[in-house]
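Fill in residues.
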């Protein structure tokens, strides 16, 4: 029986003869140069995408101090949403529209108001523009109402003290506070008024945190983003070999930051 040919609808693609001759005419150096050029273009596009994402969308951050315990621990690695409040265009004061505005209780990443050479801080917003803040025996009051902050940790509640750095508060005292006799301490101060465009931030570990009590209000422009999730964590205090592998806090990985 004669064999029947079955048409598949597929045709073999032929490389033009001119292209074949051109490819054969290239020497090893030319082919290497073309490969390097294609590689450089791919790397450039990837780098550009990385910079765009890092500048306008997300960035990573590592916790190096205990000021936010027990919400955040030393050795936590965070993903920070820079679009939450609007990222800034590099080398300008222009801020892109954000997904929202900073609110009370938000954990934020901010540039240090005074020591600009230091790494960014992570703190919690406790006071908004125009609000009246005070602290009595370690309890925070906003507009005269005591705040019940479930996230606060106290390690030495009896260790109240005075620090000369608290004296900045004298310029922002609420009406009725006697300036001449005002002497703020870590756990007893105010009431003070938060100026427009500024925020008051504190660490959750109130007895071991340098925050707005020490260096004042935070301008809106210094707030860079909001941490979203812990993507990795390990216990740096353990003295075992390679703790970043042997002391992983598996239970914290994937936790949302609240």
């Amino acid at each position: 029986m004669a064999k029947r040919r079955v048409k598949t609808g597929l045709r073999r693609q032929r490389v033009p003869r001119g292209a074949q001759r051109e490819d054969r005419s290239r020497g090893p150096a030319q082919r290497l140069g073309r490969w390097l050029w294609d590689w450089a273009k791919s790397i450039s596009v990837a780098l550009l995408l990385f910079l765009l994402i890092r500048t306008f969308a997300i960035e990573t951050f590592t916790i190096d101090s205990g000021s936010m315990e027990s919400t955040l621990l030393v050795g936590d690695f965070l993903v920070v949403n820079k679009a939450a409040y609007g990222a800034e265009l590099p080398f300008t004061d222009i801020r892109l529209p954000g997904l929202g505005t900073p609110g009370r209780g938000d954990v934020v990443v901010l540039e240090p108001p005074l020591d600009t050479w230091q790494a960014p801080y992570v703190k919690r917003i406790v006071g908004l523009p125009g609000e009246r803040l005070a602290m009595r025996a370690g309890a925070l009051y906003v507009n005269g109402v005591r705040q019940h902050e479930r996230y606060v940790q106290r390690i030495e509640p009896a260790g109240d003290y005075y620090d000369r750095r608290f004296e900045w508060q004298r310029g922002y005292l609420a009406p009725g506070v006697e300036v001449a006799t005002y002497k703020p301490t870590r756990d007893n101060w105010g009431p003070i008024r938060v100026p427009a465009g500024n925020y008051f931030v504190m660490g959750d570990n109130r007895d071991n945190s340098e925050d707005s009590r020490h260096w004042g209000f935070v301008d809106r422009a210094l707030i860079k983003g909001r941490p979203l999730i812990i993507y990795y964590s390990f216990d740096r205090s353990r003295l075992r070999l390679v703790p970043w592998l042997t002391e992983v806090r598996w239970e914290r990985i994937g936790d949302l930051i609240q």
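Residues 26-53 form one domain.
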